[in-house]
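Before a colleague's protein record goes any further, I have to sign it off. My question to you is simply how this chain folds and whether the tokens agree. I do not need a full report, just your reasoning and any doubts. This is what I was given:
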Amino acid sequence: MKPFPALVRTGLRANFGLRAIAYRFFTEKKDRWLLPLFALAAVSLAPTLYAGIKLLAGLYGMLTPMNQQAALLTFALLTGQVLILLFGLYYVISAFYFSRDLEILIPLPLKPFQVMLSKFIVICVNEYVTVFLLVVPVLVTWGIKAGRGPDYWVAAVLVYLLLPVIPLAIVSLLVVALMRLVNVSRKKDALILIGSIILIAGSIALQSAVGRANAGGMSAQSAVAFFAAPDSILNRVGAFFPPSIWATKALAGGPGATGPAHLALFAGVSLALFLALIVLSEKLFYRGLVGIGETSARRRTLSSAEMSRRVSSGRRPFRALLAREWRIMNRTPIFLLNGVLVVVIIPVVMLLMVKTGGETEVFLVNFLSAANPAVVILGAAAFLTVSGSLNGTASSTFSREGGQFWMSKVIPVPPRDLVAAKLVHSYAISVLGVAVSTVALVAIFHLPAGQVAPAVGLALLAGMLLTIIGMLIDLARPLLDWTNPQKAIKQNLNVLFAMLAGIGFLIVTGWLAARLLKLGIGGPGVLLILAALLAVLSAAGAALLFRFARKRYAEIEV
């Protein structure tokens, strides 16, 4: 096999680890207990998928009389490409510059563009999986409802295969240029983090600007003219990212001149950006890698008194362990971006969406508050919990150590102290998310303190419980054998299981609150019952976590 195809094949195998999964399932038989969970998830997904397809069919029927049915394709394609554009940044930085396999690949007789493009292809395949349920049901439903022929299905396959190329190529070009500049400085990690935040902030700011422009008021006459014009919704929605318009018209244009022309435009721009990435990677990729693993040390002479104090007293174990957790998170920008940035970006995006979308949401909250303040408190608590806890920090806390987990086993402190430091660190990220989200809620909905305070209290209690659940899941089966830091979070099944557990927890809690309200218990009583229940479950979960840690730390092998 030629070097480049072999490199891509190896990258895909390492990325998905299908052989390793099969070995653990059928040879070692360690993870067979997961098979019922996968089957249950598949069964539970079927009704949701059916309901989604029915909804799409209904939307198609609503848009058809206005000749706006193509907008349905635009919504799906645009959403998929924007998600790839925003969150593909994590994949690109991690795969291009923080993979452990780079130390093996660079000395091989491979050209820089071959190494980088092999990683680019692996990221594309990841994105196909990411946007599959978001895009494919829309493509299939639209094609069936429109009664399209073979030409549509061929174009749909091509559009789907090209879908991640443009956004990923844009991100990759920016990242390669950024990393070339970053490596002229000793503060590489800080500059990588700052540059990543600037890229994400720029994308959000652009979306906000387009949203404000699209949210401008319309007179009755202009509104009628707008909806009467064919594909007006398509053009307005897709104005944020024009490739989504090209992809939509490639599908909706049919076999005439419009469809093939836009497909050629979409493919041509994808190819042009792909070729630009090849040229730039050949010139700058390895230059950006130079010094990526270097560390700079500051040397300072200690006085005899300070040396004696440090040696005799040392640092308190818990403080040292907590500082170690922060260093593990901060030393790799991928961990920091996926952990800390996620808890900040969710409320920021929500704030921008509401500010550019009008006052409907504020009116709805005021209406619910007048009817039953407890409903608003519970809804606010649910939002704060999601923003603070469903970020993968707790459910990857052991996995992030990777091959360095052996250090945790030889540190002369009991596992209880190690786990306690991880618990405090993960919970601190959750508290940060609750704090930022609280500011967003108050700024958007102007909730009174009497509603904000109990919502924050419930979110903090729920956050502690979900943090413990995530840590228990990761401690049960830590993913320590990874070559790419994004795999410890983005491709870690423990994060998925923890998110599913968190969603299930919110559903059960909401059902319990609804039952209590239906039984005639007043709002304050319901809130007190939920708070007491969360406190008891958190205490029991912490005790279970500490006991489980004593057993697992002795069993885990690195």
